[in-house]
TrEMBL record:
Residues 27-93 form the Transposase IS4-like domain. One of its GO terms (molecular function) is DNA binding. GO terms for biological process: DNA transposition. InterPro entries: RNaseH-like_sf, Transposase_11. It holds the Pfam family DDE_Tnp_1. It comes from Rubripirellula reticaptiva. This is Transposase DDE domain protein.
Amino acid sequence: MSKKEFDDLDDFVLVRHLRYCFKQKGFRVRYVLFATTLLDASEHSVEDLAVLYAQRWQVEWDIQSLKAHMQMEHLRCKSPSMVRKEIYAHLISFSLIRYLSVRTALRHSTAPKYLSHTAAVQSLNAFSGNCKPEVAELINSKGSGWSQSVSIRSATENPEFTLEKSNAAPVHTSQ
C-alpha cells in the first residue's frame, strides 16, 4: 500500500462485535469473539458468520495438514521452476490420497475430513503389493510426499506382512 493510499483511508473503521457459542458433543463449549465489518445483522447473522469462521479454520487446518503430511515444510529444489514442479508433485500425490479417502468416506457414509491422512497412506502402502511395479516405483520416488516406502514384493517374499484372504485386513506376523 502506498503512502497516498494509506492517507486516503478513513481515520477509523466501524466494526461489529459478535460472540458465538460453539457446541460439539463430547467437547467443551467454546465461546468465540468476532469482529467484522459486515455491519448489517439482518443480512449477516451471527450463525452465518460462525459457519464462515469454522470453514476458514478448516481451510487453515487443511493447508497445515498438506504441509505436514506431504513433508513440504522444507522444499528441496533450488530453482523456481523446479520448486513449482516439486509443489505440483506433492499436490498430485495429496490429491490422489484425498480422492481415495473421499471414495472411502462416501462408501461408509461419513465426512472425508474425519478420515486420517496417515491411515490412508498406510493402507495404500499395505495394499501396494497388488499394484504395477512402475506405479510402486513412482510412489517410492523421492519428493513424492509419501512418508513410507511401498513394497512391491508379494506377501510370501515379505514375511513381516501378509493379507488375510477372508477380509483383506492386514495381519502382522512376528518371527
